[in-house]
Amino acid sequence: MKSVLVGMSGGVDSSVTAYLLQKQGYRVHGLSLMFWETRFNSGTTACCSIDSVLDAAKTAAIVGVSHSAKDVRVEFMERVIEPFIAGYRDGLTPNPCVLCNKHVKFPALLDTANEMGIDFIATGHYAGIVNQHLTIATDKKKDQSYFLYPLTSEMLSRLVLPLGGLTKDEVREVALSLNLPAATRPESQEICFVVDCDYGKFIRDYDGGVSRDGPIIDMEGNRIGTHHGLYAYTLGQRRRIGIPAKEPLYVIGIDTATNTLRVGQRQFAVAPECIVGDLNMLVDIAFPASLDVKIRSAGRLIPALVSFVDAQKVKVVFERPQWPPAPGQSAVFYDEGTVIGGGVIV
């Protein structure tokens, strides 16, 4: 009998994953990773609270699989929280889910599986594995392949994703039929460790120096206002500019060297291309290549020409100018639904 280690957050997706794999004949062991809020308080976030770990243990008992927990709080602080704060301080828009998958979650799952002599690892992500290639999920609205591009070939060769062919409604129906603790739990918030989605407060609490006033300038370089910290802005943003204008103003540039925010009208915000570094290619491909690119987790696939700048970077030229890609976010490359690779927008 093949064995599989399932990352169980206590949420509905990972709970159903454990159940489905057991029904498929795997010997299942559930592992809950203690990331962040588990050391402070309970019940404040969807997937990081003590309540979530307890729910995962209850689910494991209902489904009839073994369960344990692993403390990765130090790794999460060093590889996710601190880079998240530093990124915003440096004018970037980091993606903590990508950082977590790359540096914490999947390395912890793989290491534990190896220690326990378990054959495979599994999560409740909506994505597919076809011939060890990562693919888009059947439920396009829930597809999470974007977040998985930084995985290694070893991780992909041992990864099982049973939700890739299901819709969210189908998954929740399974959970309801089993009366699982997570069956009626609402969707997880965007950033699991940030309470009430207020990332600005989170950053200020850990680095009060980010709230430094600076000039807001227009496209001609004229000072037209004052911002209260560049960390609160990302390219293309309209909220929190707070300057009356005949046409809406958007963030066009963030200059941390001079602590300056540049704003302009919508036509100045779009971008014809972007540069992507810190590459992780999952499929060998010759560049230049015409591929579909996703520059936001919830964004659509954009036709683009991708070509090498050097060994570490590629240039992505969009078929049509796009709402500005935010430095620090990821750009992920697809070919007919298969993830080719990706990197960080620089």
Topology:
Layout lengths: L2 E5 L4 H12 L3 E8 L15 H14 L2 E6 L1 H17 L6 H21 L3 E3 L5 E3 L2 E3 L17 H5 L1 E2 L7 H11 L20 H8 L7 E4 L5 E5 L22 E6 L4 E5 L6 E11 L7 E6 L7 E9 L2 E10 L7 E6 L2 E8 L1
Parallel strand pairs: 1-2, 1-4, 2-3, 4-7, 8-11
Antiparallel strand pairs: 5-6, 8-9, 10-11, 12-15, 12-17, 13-14, 13-16, 14-15, 16-17
Helix pairs in contact: 1-2, 1-6, 3-4
Question: Can you walk me through this structure?
Answer:
- It is built from seven helices and 17 strands.
- With 346 residues, the protein is of the alpha/beta class.
- It folds into three domains: 3-196, 3-Layer(aba) Sandwich (Rossmann fold), CATH 3.40.50; 211-268, Adenine nucleotide alpha hydrolases-like domains (SH3 type barrels, Roll), CATH 2.30.30.280; 272-345, Translation factors (Elongation Factor Tu (Ef-tu), domain 3, Beta Barrel).
- It has a six-stranded antiparallel beta barrel. The protein has a five-stranded parallel sheet with strand order 3-2-1-4-7, with helices on both faces.
- A hairpin with a 2-residue loop joins strand 14 and strand 15.
